[in-house]
Amino acid sequence: MLEDVPPDPFADDPNDPSSALGDLDDAEPLTAAERDEAITDLADVEVFRSLLEPQGVLGLVLDCPECSEQHFFDWELLRGNLRQMIENGQPQVHEPAFHPDPSDYVSWEYARGYVDGVIDTEERH
Question: Which residue spans within the chain are E strands per DSSP?
Answer without folding.
Answer: 59-63, 70-74, 105-107
